[in-house]
Amino acid sequence: MTRTLALLLAASALPLAAAPASGQPSSAQPAYAPLFAAEITGAKRDLDASIKAGINVPVPKDPGGGFTHEQHKRNYRIIFEGGQLYRLTGDRRYLDHVRDMLLAYAELYPALGPHPAAANQVPGRLFWQSLNDSVFLVNAVQGYAEIRKALSAEDRRRIDEGVIRPMARFLSDGSPQVINRIHNHATWACAGVGLAGYLLGDRDLVDKALMGLDKSGKAGFLRQLDLLFSPDGYYAEGPYYQRYALQPFVVFAAAIEANEPQRKIFDYRDGIVLKAVRTAIDVTHSGYFIPINDAMPDKSLRTEELYHGVAIAYAATHDPTFLSIAEWQGRTVLTPAGQMLAADVAAGKARPWPFTSRLLGDGPDGKQGALVLLRESRGTNGPLLVAKNSVQGMGHGHFDRLNWLYYDETGAVVTDYGAARFLNVEAKRGGRYLPENDSWASATVAHNTLVVDEQSQFGGQWKVGETVPTRQLSAGLDAPTRWSIAEIEGAYPGVTIRRALVMLNVDGLSNPLILDILHGTGSGRHRYDLPLHFSGHIIDSDIAFDQHLAERPVLGSANGYQHLWVDGEGTRNGAARLTFMQDSRFYSYHMAPPKGARFILAESGANDPEFNLRREPALIQRVDGAAATTFVSLLEPHGRYDASSEAVVASSSRIGSLAHRREDGADIVLITFVDGQRLAVAIADDTSADASHHATVAGRSLAWTGPVGRLDLAKGDAQ
Predict the structure, then answer these.
(1) Using CA atoms, how far apart are residues 338 and 308, in angstroms rounded to an integer?
(2) Active-site residue among 94, 235, 241, 641?
(3) Which residues form a coiled coil (predicted)?
(4) Hey, how many other C-beta atoms are within 10 angstroms of the C-beta on 382?
(5) Residue 692, number of CB atoms within 10 A of its CB
(6) How do residues 6-50 score in pLDDT, each as one tens digit?
(7) pLDDT tens digits, residue range 554-577?
(8) Is 198 known to be catalytic?
(9) Out of 396, 526, 533, 638, which one is annotated catalytic?
């Protein structure tokens, strides 16, 4: 990698670009590409408003969302933007404002103790948790780097010794329980401490950031790269936290490349930093991150972390598909890397991002499970089946092994609740995670996976869950039949769960069918519940529900069940169906349930005194008193609803029946359409890729190799 490119990658994290020698604005500013020009315009607007308002560096008092919290956030943004504007324009007003703000912090910071609003996290000095202090330092160092050489020696000394170095020391030696963790909080701390170290020429700080406080390499930034990502670039805590952790990873990596190119950080661990950026983009639908674990469903690629990530990744690779992501974002960053990206977007160099099916191994070795993305390649918003067969996800993980989600052009269809939190909304417990995050959002019944005896997996103990991997047995990523097969033992004592999810392209259907076969196998007698959480309005069902119209009983008393209202209960002999409508499409959920199964229509929101939970529907298939059980289900998208023309097409299901049987170590499922067409799918217990299998379906021989076989039967074939 050339030194010139390294400078671009540095993203102005270090004092690498000198301000104009005169310290005055250039009389002839260059013409910038539209994306970058828009960033300059926005930053100037922010700086002009801040200059007009004057320096405001309040004594910390409030939790997330409160005035002092938000003011300090605004301030570190102003420091970052002001520094970049000075580098670009030489306008002394920006230098003076950033200098004065940092001098104010140099007066305030030495006298601060632990934040008064600290709760269950390690307290910061400026913010209620030290994580936010780390974010402050990462941003402030990047802005300060652009003005530092233009300051007087005394101002540099006051800022260096009054705020930058003390904050770096607090986040390193003063917070060993944070920086020595393998966790996103530690990543931000390492980035802030390391950037400060490079800026100040302090090798001790740099080495502690890279290799942990004892410099042994058992902790620190490099160890985080080893342990927090799988070889595919999948982050241990899931997509939401991959998004959040990405900024310190890429910004600090760029600074390492600029200052120590001999480390070849972008080649480290087979290019894991750039893999992480690519994977972060892949774990989205319609630009929004798949909301598994403690995730907010409204987080998208339009976020500061991904603006930095995309710009730095493009500067490192010149891969034109990153430009298409920048076009979707409509933003970039005020750095040399952002400037390069914007220029190439304007030059028309963008190419579409290759959204394809992927198996993303989980765990440092990639063998602790997987997140499987089965998708139709129709750009950002085509059909996507997500099989969540990953590891626990650390403290932010939910108890939802073998969970699944489904998306298409209408958005999320089979849904995941994500986190119970109103981020930075002070009125909602200071913007922190709510009690319902534990009692509902992370509970197994809040997800689309098997619940045994109304308990959460691993007894609701995430540290226990971290010790038990999921086994990804097989995956097929290519049309017309894609699949994921996974298994877990240990989520419940003595119970093994195996799940096969199959995406089936069928001629004549606009969107694929999703087949789900779940086996729960144990000893003794159990209650097995299989929830489906979905988005939309119920249209009809062939299940005769006894409805609770006057009173809404609660389904249970603990482990998430206390938060479910029961709207109806019913039974049905044989196959069952529930049809619902989401946006412009209909969906029929077909079930070939176990003998004696009951069906429960429920809605979240019970026992919620502070109205913290969203009201969302669920259908639960329940079997009581069984040692083992098998649930077979099929999601069928169909039809169209056009509100503007009041036109409705194919609101009724095209599937006439769904049948399941076991034969010679395989599940055989026969799907019969109302027009007589039939489709048989066989899933073998032996998931070896080279194993041969045979079955007879509808009088026809079905032979296949590997775990999944398929036979399409035309209307006239033997019955």
Answers:
(1) 8
(2) 241
(3) none
(4) 17
(5) 11
(6) 333 444 444 333 334 344 555 556 889 999 999 999 999 999 999
(7) 999 999 999 999 999 999 999 999
(8) no
(9) 396
